[in-house]
Amino acid sequence: MRQRRKRSAAITLMLAGTISSCGEPVPQQDVYQSLADCQRDWGDPQQCQPVRDGRYAPSYHYGPSYYGSSYRDGRPKPSNNAMDAVRSSQPVSRGGFGSTGRSFFSGS
Amino acid sequence: MRRETIEPRSDWRRRCAEVGFSWHSMGGVYWDESACYAFDEAQIDYLESVSSELHAMCLRAAAEVVAARSFAQFAIPEAFHDLVARSWRSAEPTLYGRFDLSWDGRGDPKLLEYNADTPTALLEASVVQWQWLEDARPQADQFNSLHEKLVERWKALATMAGPNQVHLACVRDSEEDFGNVEYLRDCALQAGWDARPLHIEDLGWDGERFVDLGYEPVQTLFKLYPWEWLVREEFGAHLGSIRMRILEPAWKLLLSNKALLVALWHLYPGHANLLPAYFDADAFSGEYVRKPLLAREGANVTLKTKDGELAEDGHYGAEGFIYQGVARLPDFGGRYPVIGSWIVGDRPAGIGIREDESPITRNSSRFVPHYFT
C-alpha cells in the first residue's frame, strides 16, 4: 500500500471566474487655492508644489500624484479641500519592455 | 505508460471555465480529454526521482558556467554577464521550471530541454487535470501536487523577499499567458502576497526605478517574459542597476538556454537521462536534432535523420544553434506525447503531457490528462 498520494488534496481558487483588469487607471493631482488647503489634505508641505505651468494662478498649489475617483465623463474628481483636479503629468516612460513579445510566444 | 481513449465529460467546457481555463479550444482543440495517459506507481516514482536529479545537475552546470564565465556560449550580451553572475552568487530564489522529457514508460527518460524561465501550461497541469481526475478517475492518483507546492513556495519567497508586494506581468495580447499569470497571482494571494496584475508594456521607468501604472515602485516583479528579451529591449539597460527583485531570477538565463544541454553533456557524459549535445553538428555521424539556443514552442527545430529533414518554421536562430542526439517521442498510434515535469522551488511537483501528430512538439500541441494507479 502506498504511503502517500501524489495528487493535490484540495484546490481552492480565489480569482477563477473573476475578470482582472490591467487597464490604465487615471493618476491625478488635486489643485488647491492655497498651500494651507493642500496641507490640510497631505500634511507635509513638501508634497505641495506651487503651480508653475500657467494653468492656474501662481498662488495655487498642486498636490502629489495619486489615484482617486473620476466623474462619469472621465475627469478626475478633486477632494473636498481642492478646487480642481488634473490628470497627473509625472514624467514616466513606458513601453520599454514588450516589443519582442509582439512577434513571438513568451511562454515555453 | 499507455494511452487510453475515453469519453470526455459532457460538461467539460463548463468545468474548464469554472477554473479560469478560457483557452481550452485555442487553435481548435487544445485541452483534449478524449484520451488520457495511464502510468503505474513505479513509473511515476521514477519520473519524480529523475526530475529531482536533473534539476540538481542543472544547478551544478549553472555553477560551472558562472565560475568559468562562459556566458558567451549562451549568447548572453556582455553587459549582462555580471548581472547573471551576481544573481547566481547571491542565490536569488526561483519559483518554478519545467523539464520536457521523452519517455514511453520503459528505459530511461531523456531530457529534451529545460523550460526554466517562462514555462506555461501550468493551470492545465495544476488545476484542470486535477479537476478532471476528481470527476473522471476519482479512485486513481495523479502526479500533481503543483497547487499546494506553488502556494508553499510563494510563502517561502515572502519570507526571503521582505516587503511582500509583487506585480505579475505578461504581454498584453495573450489570453494563454494572462491565464497562466492569473493562476500564479491566485497562488501568491493565497500565500499572503499583495499580488497585482500588470502588462509588461505598462511597466514604467521614472528615471530611478520601475513603477506600475499608479507610479508605485515595483518591489518584486514576476514576469512571464523571457530574460533574453528583457536584456535586449530598451529598458534592459536599467536592469543591472536596480534593486527590484525579479522572478525568475537572471541566472535562469543559463538554464532556459539550449546551451545548457551542451554544458550538461560535458559535465555528465553518458548520463542515462541526457542526450549527447554539442555546438557542432560534425560530432554526429548520423541523425541529430538542431535547436536554436533561444527558441520556444518547437520553432526552428530541425530533425535530421537518414530519411531526410523535418523542420519547423520560425524566426529564431540568430544567436546560434546546438546539436542534440535524437530521442524520438514515443508513438502512440500516431500521437507523440512529451512529458512536462514540473519543478517548484527545487522539488518535483507533477507532470503535464502534451501530444502532437508531429514528432516535434509545437505551440499547437494538445494537453492530455494523466493518472496512475
Description:
The complex is a heterodimer of chains A (108) and B (373). Chain A has 108 residues and is mainly β. Helices cover 7% and strands 17% of the residues of chain A. Chain A is built from 1 helix and 6 strands; from the N terminus they run βαβββββ. Chain A is elongated. With 373 residues, chain B is of the alpha+beta class. Helix content of chain B is 29%, strand content 24%. Chain B contains 9 helices and 19 strands. In chain B, the strands form 5 sheets. A 5-stranded antiparallel sheet of chain B has the order 4-3-16-17-18. Chain B has a 5-stranded antiparallel sheet with strand order 11-15-12-13-14, covered by helices on one side. A 4-stranded parallel sheet of chain B has the order 6-5-9-10, covered by helices on one side. In chain B, a hairpin with a 4-residue loop joins strand 7 and strand 8. Chain B starts with a strand and ends with a strand. The relative contact order of chain B is 0.19. The mean pLDDT of chain B is 94.
